[in-house]
Amino acid sequence: MKIILLGPPGAGKGTQAKSISSKYDIPHISTGDIFRKNITEKTPLGVEAKRYMDNGQLVPDSLTIDLVKDRLSHEDCKGGFLLDGFPRTVNQAEALKNFLRNNGENIDCALLIDVPRDFILDRMTGRRVCPACGASYHIKFNPPTNEGKCDLCGQDVIQRKDDNEATVNERLEVYENQTQPLIEYYEKENLLKVVQGTKAINEVFESICSILGSIK
Ligand code: ADP
Ligand code: AMP
């Protein structure tokens, strides 16, 4: 199964991705996580990406597209994959389509987690993430079992630098201008499925499973 997760920042893509990836046994590929790993390791890509991420801007397509193509060429993607946070521009979507087409493939589903804008600020300012495995928590809606520690790997969870009110507002603007057009793009491709992301985390997951179960 080759799946794209769409939705505004804070929709719950990363949260649902962990469960989907484990249920369907496909790698969870988050471009945000890849960039953050590069920032931690102070690679040239990380240094460049940080300039954009700290301001809530998109990292340029010229840095992002090749990174994803390279990741999708790894052996573990042969049986499918789950993309979280990519594509974010029509240009990225076209590059992905052409890359897959060259291998005689296409994605199976672009799944939009739909959450209205007024839910987002609370979700993102209360978000805590594990810097080691990328797991996402929320201080009110989904706290870790042991306060401050990742359930999956025991690391201290942290607040992302870009999860402050000003940067979240900028990211929402960027989403509306550059990423939202992908909803229409995938609708035209007949690949769009929509799930309401305002329900509880486990209920959203159930809806996702019933959609994915009806695809293949
Ligand atoms: P995204 O990857 O789309 O940016 P996350 O999965 O990191 O979003 O979720 C953003 C925040 O909202 C996190 O703190 C997460 O715990 C919380 N969250 C995710 N899904 C829900 C939900 N259905 N209800 C309430 N909070 C949620
Ligand atoms: P995320 O972890 O998905 O919330 O992404 C965090 C930040 O990483 C975004 O605000 C962008 O700056 C950058 N980013 C992640 N994915 C992409 C992408 N596909 N294209 C451009 N920038 C990206």
Automatic annotation (TrEMBL):
Residues that coordinate or bind AMP: 31, 36, 57-59, 85-88, 92, 160, 171
EC number: 2.7.4.3
GO cellular component terms given for this protein: cytoplasm
Pathway it works in: Purine metabolism; AMP biosynthesis via salvage pathway; AMP from ADP: step 1/1
Assembly description: Monomer.
GO molecular function: AMP kinase activity; ATP binding; zinc ion binding
Residues engaged in binding ATP: 10-15, 127, 136-137, 199
Role noted for this protein: Catalyzes the reversible transfer of the terminal phosphate group between ATP and AMP. Plays an important role in cellular energy homeostasis and in adenine nucleotide metabolism.
Region (LID): 126-163
Top enzyme category: transferase
Predominant cellular place of this UniProt entry's protein: cytoplasm
Listed name of the protein: Adenylate kinase
Positions bound to Zn(2+): 130, 133, 150, 153
Provenance organism: Clostridium frigidicarnis
Adenylate kinase active site lid domain sequence ranges: 127-162
Localization annotation: Cytoplasm
Native organism taxonomy: Bacteria, Bacillati, Bacillota, Clostridia, Eubacteriales
GO BP terms: AMP salvage
Catalytic activity from the UniProt record: AMP + ATP = 2 ADP
Domain-level remarks: Consists of three domains, a large central CORE domain and two small peripheral domains, NMPbind and LID, which undergo movements during catalysis. The LID domain closes over the site of phosphoryl transfer upon ATP binding. Assembling and dissambling the active center during each catalytic cycle provides an effective means to prevent ATP hydrolysis. Some bacteria have evolved a zinc-coordinating structure that stabilizes the LID domain.
Keyword set, alphabetical order: ATP-binding, Cytoplasm, Kinase, Metal-binding, Nucleotide biosynthesis, Nucleotide-binding, Transferase, Zinc
Chain positions covered by the region annotation NMP: 30-59
PROSITE patterns: ADENYLATE_KINASE
InterPro entries given in the database record: Adenyl_kin_sub (IPR006259), Adenylat/UMP-CMP_kin (IPR000850), Adenylat_kinase_CS (IPR033690), Adenylate_kinase_lid-dom (IPR007862), P-loop_NTPase (IPR027417)
Family: Belongs to the adenylate kinase family.
Pfam name, any one: ADK
